[in-house]
Amino acid sequence: MNVNPKPALRPYLPEDAEIAASIFVASIEQLTSDDYSEAQQEAWASAADDDEKFGAKLAAQLTLIATLGGAPVGFASLEGAGHIDMLFVHPDFVGQRVGATLIDALEKLAGARGAQALTVDASDNAAEFFAKRGYVATQRNTVTINGEWLANTSMKKTLAEPAAPGADQ
């Protein structure tokens, strides 16, 4: 019996804005306290205060929703052909391959869009996740959100060369 089924993926839909915002906020509140102060967390999470604006940002990118048992448990978005803008997994589902499944899919999609590499500005609590997946730190950043300074790390992964058209795979 498979205790942890593999997450299913589907495209983001406009009606996902509220659940995506709640996953975003829960993830920040419950998973980042070792790396960011409460004031920093509140400033970061405030990006989801307006569901409509948050949803519009996700709709403007290639955004995937991960589900378990049909219920959304995480999401990831690709900005342009090669930048991971967001990756958030609900705290109750961390460790169940939700993030890995989302990133695997974004890597394939980015490659199909012609990207040679993927970049991400990883939060301090996500940098290790990306490093384990082959992303290399390129620079340390400090960003300001609602008057609070937050640190993150720009990371990059070179994608596998796409197979030549017609090549057997």
From TrEMBL:
Keywords: Transferase. It comes from the Bacteria. One of its GO terms (molecular function) is acyltransferase activity, transferring groups other than amino-acyl groups. Pfam families: Acetyltransf_10. Residues 7-160 form the N-acetyltransferase domain. The keyword Transferase applies. This is Acetyltransferase, GNAT family. It comes from Rhodopseudomonas palustris (strain HaA2).
